[in-house]
Write a structure and sequence with these properties.
The complex is a heterodimer of chains A (530) and B (258). Chain A is an alpha+beta fold. Helices cover 28% and strands 15% of the residues of chain A. Chain A has two domains: 3-318, Di-copper center containing domain from catechol oxidase (di-copper center containing domain from catechol oxidase, Orthogonal Bundle), CATH 1.10.1280; 334-529, no CATH class. In chain A, the strands form three sheets. In chain A, strands 5, 6, 7, 8, 9, 10, 11, 12 and 13 form a nine-stranded antiparallel beta sheet that branches. In chain A, strands 1-4 form a two-stranded parallel ribbon. In chain A, β2 (293-296) and β3 (302-305) form a beta hairpin. In chain A, α1 (17-30) packs across α4 and α10 crosses α11 (346-356). Chain B is an all-alpha fold and 258 residues long. Chain B has one domain (13-248). Chain B is 69% helix and 2% strand. Chain B has eleven helices and two strands, in the order βαααααααααααβ. In chain B, strands 1-2 form a two-stranded antiparallel sheet. Chain B is globular and about 60 Å long. Classes of the chains: A alpha+beta (530), B mainly alpha (258). Chain A binds chain B through residues 70-72, 183-186, 194-199, 203, 282-284, 287-292, 364-366, 368-369, 371, 386, 388, 390-391, 424-425, 470-476, 521-522, 524, and chain B through 4, 6-10, 13, 87, 90, 93-99, 160, 163-164, 166-168, 170, 172-174, 227-234, 245, 248, 251-252, 254, 256.
Chain lengths: 530, 258
């Protein structure tokens, strides 16, 4: 029987899923870090900083560690900024769940126990609340709640975890039709950029890894009130790779990220390319990196696996499905809707959209760039991207309903470009920070009143390591790409696109000070056609 | 039913143009090398250097030989290094306005080659010194260069330089500033590349009998190393470039039925 991973907010009143989760955690926490099935070793697989763990009281300095905590190997294995992000985390969660299930069954619990998920659905405000069972330090009987950790500081540091719909948008996930990007392109895909085996964040994060994955890490973890987010011990566990796995909510968060992958696979849109919303068939993704997804088993031994072996969650090796993978509100044909919006007659839009699906492979062209780095701090920071006239004219040409309708004249139909704002070389002295990015906001306007100008949300999860000049990324920082097609369409229709520059406004959602040295090295606007 | 080897796609990064440039270099090298055998060319007429270790600078006194030597050196750099430039050139093109892309790549290549030409003089001088030292000590020159290369390979500083080779460029988009940035990117990328690769380049220079096969082996090893992800700079036992990737490749070369 396939086990069901359930929505934590929809568990019936007398449900024991979280009770058994807590029971298993309590057992795993008693095991020493030298045991690969211990809570500590499982968390260290995601990341470990031994000094930080000692400072936070999660590691005894006298213990002889079985692996070098500074090296990537069985520990520090997590995949970020890479097309392996989703399959690696699925294998990781699967191994974790199997170890917990083993403990639960031995304690007399249900054999169909499965890890629940926290669906912070932006359309359901009540689901955005932090799951109650994890929030209290003590249980009703006065004993310690195994689902609780003290290092959860939330958005402003006072321990209140508040997540708003704009922090966790999912619409952009369904629009990303391709699973992965090639490294010679701007990252706009769902699952990340083709890379070798990676541990750190960096340039290749896919849409799902960028949002809602990153913001939830930061908005749960946060930084303690009055603390300094540049100092790791002041930050919540969820805010950093090296500590995230210690927090029991981490696993429900990633269960939801894994669920969103299953949801994405069900998206069906008319006129989509043949490989849209499908997993890669590339052997480099399916079968590599050979032998490097190393996972523990309940008996303490390890096994190796690859993406190919985790694609079917109902396979006996994983044996789970999600309670709900529906994709609410997805339009049947976003392309036809866009063509209508751009002024193509409804009667022609369907034919035209069909003809576009046969169009040439995608091309990416830079349309504009910012002149200098932008320091983000305080309430808001304004900046601008200078446009190149030639490239902008080409973009405008593809948005013109008349040029699209040239199909009737026998010309090759050109679909309207999609437009992306790439924030490159985001460097930071801290891992904690979330900011919203607005594009073409009217001068002096209150951003909150203009959701139509919100390009997206960016989190600094993983930024500190990616910013270290001596680190593996040599200080190249994070890259995040936000789709601004709708905003640019609106500018075009309002006659505002015939401009030399586009304004961008960064609005921090968590405290970000000048001391955090949060810089966006370059902003680039790209058009993508084909 | 088809059979395919599951090679990592990253090995397919180098564009056809870069592979063609590299291949042309490899075809030209033996031709130039044999043609220059009697001359005192810098890098290809090793017998001259090895047999008469009066040094490359003496060799440079003959203008024609110098030209040929410099040409040989450039051809060698093109042959060995072109495939390594796939990533920076892709990054450069993506960050350049379409109409400026060719110019950007040309400026980058000019800066990059300029650094390697300067490095060429230093390398030949160093190889001559090593050859002399080897004779003085009565050791094979190969032993000395191998030791230098192995120690350098193990050093964190080298990993740091290699990591910087992966760093995407920060370029202006418009006007003279864009041109200068592209040339500057060629220079800085060249510096990190030279710092990363130099000791290995001493190997063929001081081993004239096997210079071409050694160069080819080193090229492949450096390419394998380059496609591996960056890792923290620390002392390491991995003293052969690309040994980790080679291991992964070997393990993954499973024949799969599709």
């Amino acid at each position: 029987m396939v086990r069901m991973r359930k929505d934590v907010w929809k568990l019936p009143a007398n449900d024991k899923t979280l009770f058994w989760y807590g029971q298993a955690i309590a057992v795993l926490k008693t095991r020493p870090i030298t045991d690969k099935t211990s809570w500590w070793s499982l968390a260290a697989m995601h990341g470990i900083d031994s000094q930080l763990w000692i400072d936070l009281g999660y590691l005894d300095p006298a213990v002889q560690l079985p692996f070098d905590p500074t090296k990537q190997g069985f520990w520090n294995q997590c995949q970020h900024g890479s097309w392996y992000f989703l399959p690696w985390h699925r294998a990781y969660l699967g191994a974790f769940e199997a170890i917990l299930l083993d403990v639960i069954v031995k304690k007399g619990g249900p054999a169909d126990w499965a890890l629940p998920y926290w669906n912070y659905d932006p359309t359901v405000p009540s689901a955005l609340k932090f799951p109650t069972a994890f929030a209290a330090e003590l249980l009703d009987d006065g004993s310690k709640n195994p689902l609780w950790v003290k290092e959860r500081y939330g958005r402003t540091g006072n321990g209140n975890i508040t997540i708003r719909p704009t922090d966790v948008p999912v619409k952009q996930l369904w629009r990303a039709a391709e699973f992965f990007d090639e490294p010679n392109d701007v990252p706009t895909s769902f699952g990340g950029t083709r890379t070798a085996f990676h541990h750190d964040a960096g340039a290749g994060a896919g849409k799902l890894e960028q949002t809602p994955h990153g913001p939830v890490h930061n908005l749960v973890g946060g930084t303690i009130e009055g603390g300094d987010s540049n100092v790791s011990t002041d930050n919540g566990l969820m805010s950093m790779f090296e500590t995230a796995g210690i927090d029991p909510i981490f696993w429900l968060h990633h269960s939801n990220i894994d669920r969103l992958w299953e949801s994405w696979l069900t998206v069906h849109q008319l006129q989509a390319p043949p490989d849209a919303h499908k997993n890669p068939t590339d052997l480099a993704w399916l079968d590599q990196p050979a032998g490097q997804f190393v996972m523990p088993q309940p008996d303490g031994t390890t096994f190796t696996t690859t993406a190919r072996h985790v694609l079917n969650t109902k396979d006996p090796s994983l044996n789970y499905e999600y309670q709900d993978i529906s994709v609410p509100g997805q339009p049947a044909s976003p392309l036809v809707a866009r063509l209508n919006r751009l002024g193509v007659a409804p009667a022609d839009a369907n034919t035209l959209a069909g003809a576009f699906s046969m169009a040439s492979p995608k091309t990416t062209e830079m349309v504009g760039q910012s002149a200098a780095a932008v320091r983000i701090s305080g309430a808001a920071t304004e900046a601008s991207v200078q446009l190149d006239d030639v490239a902008r004219n080409r973009l405008q040409g593809t948005l013109s309903a008349r040029s699209m309708s040239n199909l009737a004249l026998g010309a090759k139909p050109t679909p309207p470009d999609r437009v992306f704002l790439a924030l490159e070389n985001i460097t930071s002295a801290t891992d904690v920070g979330v900011f919203h990015v607005y594009v073409n906001l009217p001068k002096g306007a209150d951003p909150e009143q203009h959701p139509e100008n919100l390009a997206g949300v960016v989190s600094l999860f993983g930024a500190r390591e990616a910013s270290r000049p001596a680190g593996p990324h040599a200080g190249s920082g994070l890259t995040q790409t936000l789709e601004i097609t709708d905003i640019v369409d609106a500018m075009h229709l309002a006659g505002d696109l015939n401009t030399q520059q586009i304004d961008v406004k960064f609005v921090p959602q968590t405290p970000i000070s000048d001391n955090n040295k949060v810089d966006v090295g370059r902003m680039r606007i790209y058009r993508q056609g084909g | 039913m088809t059979w395919r080897i599951a090679l990592p796609a990253v090995t397919r990064w180098p564009s056809r143009a870069l592979l063609a440039a590299s291949l042309a270099g490899w075809v030209l090298l033996p031709l130039l090398g044999h043609g220059a055998q009697s001359s005192a060319a810098l890098c290809l007429s090793y017998p001259t250097l090895a047999d008469a270790p009066r040094g490359a600078l003496a060799a440079l006194s003959v203008a024609d030989d110098t030209m040929l030597a410099a040409l040989s050196w450039i051809v060698m750099v093109v042959a060995m290094m072109s495939p390594l430039l796939a990533q920076p050139i892709v990054q450069l093109r993506l960050r350049s306005l379409t109409r400026r892309r060719r110019r950007a790549v040309a400026l980058f290549a000019a800066g990059y080659l300029a650094i390697w030409i300067v490095a060429g003089f230093a390398l030949v001088t160093a190889s001559a010194a090593i050859t002399r030292l080897a004779e003085h000590l009565g050791w094979p020159a190969l032993a000395i260069t191998l030791t230098i290369a192995a120690i350098w390979q193990a050093a964190p500083l080298r990993q740091s330089a290699l990591n910087r080779c992966h760093r995407p460029p920060d370029l202006s988009a418009f006007g003279l500033a864009a041109d200068l940035d592209c040339f500057g990117f060629g220079l800085t990328h060249g510096v990190w590349c030279v710092v990363t690769c130099t000791p290995w380049m001493l190997l063929p220079l001081t081993t004239p009998a096997f210079h071409l096969p050694l160069m080819l082996m080193i090229s492949i090893a450096l390419l394998l190393e380059r496609i591996a992800p960056a890792r923290p700079a620390a002392w390491t036992w991995r003293i052969l470039p690309g040994q980790k990737v080679a291991g992964v490749l070997l393990r993954s070369m499973q024949w799969s039925v599709r």
